[in-house]
Amino acid sequence: MKLNNKIGIIVDSFGVSVKEGLKKAKATGAEGVQIYAVSGEMDPAVLIGPKRKELRDYIDSLGLEISALCGDLAGHGFQDAAANPAKIEKSKRILDLAVELGTNVVTTHIGIVPEDTNSPIYAAMQQACEELGVYAKSLNAYFAIETGPEPAAHLKSFLDTLTTNGVSVNFDPANMVMVTGDDPVQGVKTLRDYIVHTHVKDGIRRRPVDPRDVYGFLGYDAMSHEKIAEMAGNGAGFEEVPLGAGSVDFSAYFAALQEIGYTGYLTIEREVGDHPEEDIRQAVKFIQSFRG
């Protein structure tokens, strides 16, 4: 196997400012970057006017591309019909920003898709994703749902109910391994028609966990990235570990991506650990080892 996919890094994983993170990503050997665009300096309401061109020019000057923006608004995703109009509006503005910065992918979490397809929560999520999908399609772009909260087959059945593929998939193999125990290789094949972006991350499942404890659920707890990072760090139920040290079979996973003809980015995410920069540097080398 000889991988040809470009390597990306989530700049926020470095724990520094965007510009410093971009410099570190370049120095580490990345060809592209993913950036959170929800709050702070990257919030679409803050990064306005000439600031957008300045950022794009700076990224270009480093010889980098943006593989995707992260537009994950956390909370209950799109499970709460009353909260959805504001979240949909902000998501659209993040997508507008993405397109202006030169990428057509915004990754997000939508909340756990309920098993009961007749539930009000399922209907709220379906309605929100339909509107977002139509909007994304109008820009030749995608909102990409991150895998993990539910099995791949159930996510596919949900996506199949939408009228466009404007809502597609950001495939994260570690989330599947750590939370649902789903098989990433089979997951790639199941979701083959929807995968537009991927994360490269590794993890171990210590014991079965309730996905609601991790990703939240309406009427239950809300999702929080800080809480997920804490859970992935303490290792009680599952643990995120450096690439190659966990349960993801990357040889088989990369082969499955090749088999379905995926040519997009392999974007490194490191949400925990005391030495993220070193872990990311090693992750780049790990992926490069598959390039032959």
From TrEMBL:
Protein name (record): Sugar phosphate isomerase/epimerase
Organism of provenance: Paenibacillus mellifer
Keyword entries, A-Z: Isomerase
Molecular function terms, GO-annotated: isomerase activity
Entries under PANTHER family matching the protein: HYDROXYPYRUVATE ISOMERASE, INOSOSE DEHYDRATASE
Domain Xylose isomerase-like TIM barrel as annotated: residue spans: 22-289
InterPro entries assigned: IolE/XylAMocC-like (IPR050312), Xyl_isomerase-like_sf (IPR036237), Xyl_isomerase-like_TIM-brl (IPR013022)
